[in-house]
What does this fold into?
Amino acid sequence: MAPTPTAPANAETPCRVLGLRERKKQRTRDALVDAAHSLFLSQGYARTTIDEIAAAVDVSQRTFFRYFANKDEAALAVLADAEDYFIECLRRRPAAENPLQAMRAAITESWRGLGSEHTGGVRAALELLQLIESTPTLLAAHLRRTTEQEGVVAQVLADREGLDAATDLRPRLLAAVFGAVLRVSHLAWGSGPFPDQDAGPEGMIAIIERHFDQLGPALVGDWR
Amino acid sequence: MAPTPTAPANAETPCRVLGLRERKKQRTRDALVDAAHSLFLSQGYARTTIDEIAAAVDVSQRTFFRYFANKDEAALAVLADAEDYFIECLRRRPAAENPLQAMRAAITESWRGLGSEHTGGVRAALELLQLIESTPTLLAAHLRRTTEQEGVVAQVLADREGLDAATDLRPRLLAAVFGAVLRVSHLAWGSGPFPDQDAGPEGMIAIIERHFDQLGPALVGDWR
DNA sequence: TGCCGATTGTCAGCTACTGACATAATCTGC
DNA sequence: GCAGATTATGTCAGTAGCTGACAATCGGCA
It folds into this structure.
């Protein structure tokens, strides 16, 4: 949902004040995400059991699985929010920008927006990215999620340009290339840290920009 | 290893005739891959248990896990061979081609070579691709494998061009973009079948070519 | 207050996967 | 051919992820 502080009213929230039941549910969910996140980070993903996470929040294992379909989903929940926020940023980009420009601007914007006051902040997202790179199971799940998101991105691009995503190959293709650039950037960031690397979002943004700048050169010519 | 019929002698095979033990191992492995493949295809991935596969080959479940680290690995074994073959094709491409040309040529070449007399043939690979697209777990595992292979591809490209893969971003970037084009192509192929679609490798090759041709247009300009 | 629906806990069970140990098959040097 | 070292395999027991079914409990609402 990517709640922005400037837009409290949402079409899907008829009542401003949610019932006690809803609030409680939200709280347990957040607690589960937090517990999972810190446990995974401190002892590793594989060495952390669902029972541990559930015990930390004082709920049963069964309840955990009512909130998350599986262990992966709990781990990647933080990034899921960030991705939704990116989609929203992309939707809001001015129509004057061409697709590639819009995506570059949206990814920068979303990292910065995440940094200021979003859920958990950039901190959690960056920690998670590093955990993902070093955990094969998580990496697989993350890549699948990412790939699914590319479909959404392609649809947004097609809408922006007034094209039919079913027949025109370009939206899906560009979304996939964009995803590839991001993945390589994340990898490069994870294999750092570089001496001049910013701990906040700016470090990641710089690396992503550098990769985008190399995209053209990588595709054309002889590299020499 | 991608055994080609014209090159029986291999540097890693000191003796022409492998021992009985080795041959037996190879036979059970092949049998397991075949059994897994046909069971997954006929009843679906999730509804097939390891016990079933092991029973079909008349070995214990424990033996299955001595050949494959997990269920995914057995399912994707067919594609693993194909990927190794692609890498080999890429290595053999003439140095005159630039990186993108070499990869386009290598992927076409490997699909055709797979078609003529390779293990299992194109048939199995194409069936598997469709199963993958409709099985979330398998898709995740496949994407992870694919991503890992991109590292190998990047290294091959760097070697070809005499670059250092650790510092130059282009090899990894191009490998990732190439992977993205392939993934979208596979997806498009799976969401077919189109009326004019060839059942053999040529149908897939045509789709991949079409996507490559759209890569430039997708990246530049305003799409209108 | 009292009813209704939603959330949760408990329990039983399945399946993927692993370590430990015993058995049986192959290979090696004689 | 034959002992003895290797190595593949089977059996067994156990852990962890995940699910369905049912009962208890809690929040919403008249």
Observations:
- Chain B touches chain A at residues 98-100, 136, 139-141, 143-144, 147, 161-163, 169-174, 176-177, 179-181, 183-184, 187-188, 210-211, 214-224 (CB under 8 Å).
- Residues 21, 24-25, 28, 59-63, 66 of chain B lie near DNA strand D (CB under 10 Å from a C1').
